[in-house]
Amino acid sequence: MLPIHTIQSITLQRGDGRNLRYVLQLRDPMDNDPFIILADDKFAHNTFADHPHKGMQTVTYVLEGSLTHYDSKTGGGGRLAEGDFQIMTAGRGIIHNENPDPGEEVRVLQLWVNLSSDNKKQPSNYQDLPHDNAPVKAIDGGQVTVFAGDVDGTTSPLALLTPFIFAEVKLEKGARYEFPVNAGFNTYLYGLDGEFSINGEALKAFDTVHFDITKNEDVIVIEATEDATIIVFSGEPIKEPVIAQGPFVMNTQEEINEAFASYRNGTFLEGVPY
């Protein structure tokens, strides 16, 4: 069994039209490597107006409602409905917005995935995975939906720059599943609902587990004491310096300063107006 490093119950923060839980916070970016943050966020219209990103990817899983986004890459945008998944590569720079469709709130999980110094130079792009197209692995007493990466031979169609796994595990009461973890990957688990145990530790919705990184392949033993839904995200550390400030994730403070300066002086999108 993959050893548990820490367990934390994630508290709710309210304000500015948002109900927010920071599942993964930016305290020690090297401890999070290759991830930066994970937010469980329920928000109202006009919460996320135009804003830039650079040097990372946003990974969005819509839990409730639907949202529409507009961006500098396509000159248009798109719509994500409940159950849809998206990887947005900011790369060398993008400006976008994302708002719930009129008259509703939307709840999303948004994970920020870091990029290597080379991949920070990639052009921005989007990959969408509608819920009906996400591969599902049937298991005894439940199922595993694989949105990114590969879980026990079930593989997402999305191309990855930073190797990582993002999967949702649904288990009926009494079901048990051994979730496989790659050697050397940094692995987290977040309870969306229900009650369950991990390696014998009793947990519930909004609990987060950070596991030890091991040199060998291993498994997380999940047992549902009630019907449960669980998110597992696991990635290969990049092992490069990380400076994350605001919407930018770079390798040096100088690169961060340059990103802010270019956004202020209008050259952020290589001189192309937004």
Automatic annotation (TrEMBL):
| Limits of the Pirin C-terminal domain | 167-268
Which residues does the UniProt record annotate as the domain Pirin N-terminal? Answer: 25-113
InterPro entries for the chain: Pirin, Pirin_C_dom, Pirin_N_dom, RmlC-like_jellyroll, RmlC_Cupin_sf
One Pfam family, short name please? Pirin
- The signal peptide annotation in the UniProt record is none
SUPFAM superfamilies per record: RmlC-like cupins
Looking up PANTHER family in the UniProt record yields: PIRIN, PIRIN-RELATED
> What family is this?
Belongs to the pirin family.
- What is this protein identified as? Pirin family protein
UniProt lineage: Bacteria, Bacillati, Bacillota, Bacilli, Bacillales
